[in-house]
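Cross-check.
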Amino acid sequence: MGSPVSPVVANLYLEFLEQQAIATAPLDCKPRLWKRYVDDILEIVKEDQVENLTTHLNQTDPTDSIKFTFEKEQERSIPFLDTLIVRKPDGSVKLLVYRKATHTDQYLNFASHHPVHHKLGVVRTLLDRMNSVVSEKEDKEQEEGKIKHALKNCGYPEWTFNHVKRKMECKQAKKQSIQNDGK
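Predicted model, tokenized:
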């Protein structure tokens, strides 16, 4: 703990452990998908095998110091990091921004004694997350409304949102123009 190499060593050990666990997992509970970021794992496994896989994972660590837990899909959706993965009736998925139940929408207050570019950075960060996570147009419109509402509650004037959005759109148009010129 506290050493700069601690996260690297922890990640290497977890990688070793998960490779061993997946390789030795019984066929009926082997995951079809396994994605990990730090200590969050997204896996696809047969619904009736979740507990069996978790038991197997917890028996794989010889030190018995790492314990795996699981969260099942609720109402056709499951969170992973700050993304909510929603299964649509046709079997495809859509992505939304996930906020924990304890999320308060408290961001840097506009009246605080910080440079304006920090405040505009808050707006840009929220819009960047929306653009990189949310997969469908209607959901982006809803997310944009949530962002505007949260920023308004933190004292942000509407010009801040419009200014940042316009700059982002100009930057995207310029990027697309360069890509089109290169084709």
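Residues 6-60 form one domain. The mean pLDDT is 94. Passed to J.P. for a second look.
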